[in-house]
Each structure stands twice: as structure tokens, then as C-alpha cells.
């Protein structure tokens, strides 16, 4: 078998790799900790419900992974990004305290 390194951004390839990593990780994940994985998304919403920013993330074990952080241009430098990160951090600490 001959292998090639190929640069490509196709969704099918990304989906395959993510799926294999998830399968491997779950096979080696302690059963007592399996309830501690959680997708956690926070949003900045205006009173009319319009989203003006947010943080998309995962919390698992004793780590948090922020995938995306966004704040609308007019609201930047107002501390909203920091508030999203701090809120996410304390949410992680609360989840770690759970059995």
C-alpha cells in the first residue's frame, strides 16, 4: 500500500478523523467520568433575542476547549469577550464539582 499526504478541506475527511478520535477517546474514557462531557455554548443576546456574540465550547474532564469566540464589531473592546471567557471558566469549575 502506498500512502500520500493530501491537503484538502473536505467535510467528509474532517468528519472521518473526528469520528475516529471520538471512538478512540471513548474507548479509553473512564466510565465514572463519562457524564462530565458537555457541549457548552454561551451567547450575548439583546433584549429582542438577537445574538450579538458568543462562545462555542466543550467542557470535559478537567479541561475546557473554546472552539469559537465572537463579539459583534460595535461591542468589541467593551469587555464582553472577557465576560464570556470568565463565565465559561466558572461554569467549568461548577461542572467539575459535580459527581
From TrEMBL:
InterPro entries named among the record's database cross-references: Acyl_CoA_acyltransferase, GNAT_dom
Residue ranges constituting the N-acetyltransferase domain according to the UniProt record: 26-86
Pfam families: Acetyltransf_1 (PF00583)
Descriptive protein name: N-acetyltransferase domain-containing protein
Any one GO MF annotation of this record: acyltransferase activity, transferring groups other than amino-acyl groups
Domain of life: Bacteria
Amino acid at each position: 500500500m502506498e500512502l500520500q499526504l493530501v491537503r484538502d478541506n473536505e467535510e467528509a475527511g474532517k468528519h472521518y478523523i473526528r469520528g475516529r478520535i471520538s471512538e478512540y477517546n471513548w474507548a479509553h474514557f473512564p466510565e465514572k467520568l463519562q457524564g462530565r462531557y458537555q457541549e457548552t455554548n454561551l451567547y450575548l443576546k439583546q433584549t429582542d433575542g438577537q445574538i450579538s456574540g458568543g462562545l462555542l465550547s466543550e467542557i470535559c474532564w478537567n479541561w475546557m476547549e473554546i472552539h469559537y469566540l465572537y463579539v459583534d464589531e460595535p461591542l468589541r473592546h467593551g469587555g464582553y469577550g472577557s465576560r464570556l471567557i470568565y463565565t465559561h471558566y466558572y461554569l467549568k469549575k461548577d461542572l467539575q464539582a459535580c459527581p
